[in-house]
Design a protein that fits this description.
Keywords: DNA-binding, Phosphoprotein, Transcription, Transcription regulation, Two-component regulatory system
Strand order of the largest sheet: 2-1-3-4-5
CATH class of the largest domain: Alpha Beta
Structural class: alpha/beta
Number of strands: 13
CATH topology of the largest domain: Rossmann fold
Number of helices: 8
GO molecular function: phosphorelay response regulator activity; transcription cis-regulatory region binding
Radius of gyration: 18 Å
Distance between the termini: 38 Å
Number of domains: 2
Shape: elongated
Protein name: DNA-binding response regulator
Largest sheet: 5 strands, parallel
GO biological process, one term: regulation of DNA-templated transcription
CATH architecture of the largest domain: 3-Layer(aba) Sandwich
Pfam family, one: Response_reg
Length: 239
Amino acid sequence: MPNKPKETIHVVEDDPAVARLMAQTLEKFGFEAQFFATGADFLRRLDSDPPRLCVLDLGLPDMDGLDILSHVRARHGFGLLIVTGRGDIHDRVTGLELGADDYMVKPFEPREFIARVRSILRRYREPAAGSAAANGVRIAEFAGWRFEPGNNALTSPGGETETLSMAEAQLLGALLQRPNQILTREQLLGGRDVAALDRSIDLRISRLRKRLEENPLHPRLIKTVYGAGYLFSSSVDWL
C-alpha cells in the first residue's frame, strides 16, 4: 500500500530560530513544511501551491500579518494558525475576527503547537461518515434562510446571497447539524480545549448573529445558554 501523502504546512516566519523549531516539530509529527521569510514570498506561492494549513507570524519585515490574513481569507479556504510574539488582546481579537482558526503567543510549547495544528486540520477535512454532508445532503433551509455547505453560500429570506468565511461556515454547519441542542464551545471548535480567556468562539457567534439576526443584541436563532454554550433555536430541513 502506498504511503499517505504528507500534508503541507506553509510557515510564514522571519525568525530563523523559530522557523527551525517549527520545521523540526512539524517533520517529527509527519508533516511537510515550506517556509517563507516574507509575506510577499508567501503570497506569490499561494495560487500555484496552496497549503493545507498556514502558520502565520504577524510581525513580518515587509507586511503586516493581519493584512495577509485578510487577503488569504478573501480568496482561500485552508486552515490558518497565528503564532506571534504579539500578545496584545486587540491583535488577538482582530486576527480571530478576520478568520484565523486559532492564535498562539510565542514562546510556545511544541506539543501544544502540534495539537493546535491537528485540531485545525481535523475541522477542514472531509465530513465524518454519517453526517449530512457525507451522505450527499448539500443544502440546509431554516427560518427562511438557505445555506449551501459546498460553497459556503448563505441566502437570506429576501434572496440576497453572500459567501461566508470558512470559519463562519464551519460554525454554522455545526449548529445546523444539531438544532435545538446545547453545544459547548469545545464542541463548536471541533473538540479543542478552550481556555477561560479564549473567546474566539464567542467572536464567531457574534459575527454569525450580525448576519442572521434582526437584532443581534436579542438573538432569536443563536441563543446563549449561560454556563453551558449555545443553542440553535430553529428547525432545519436538509435537502
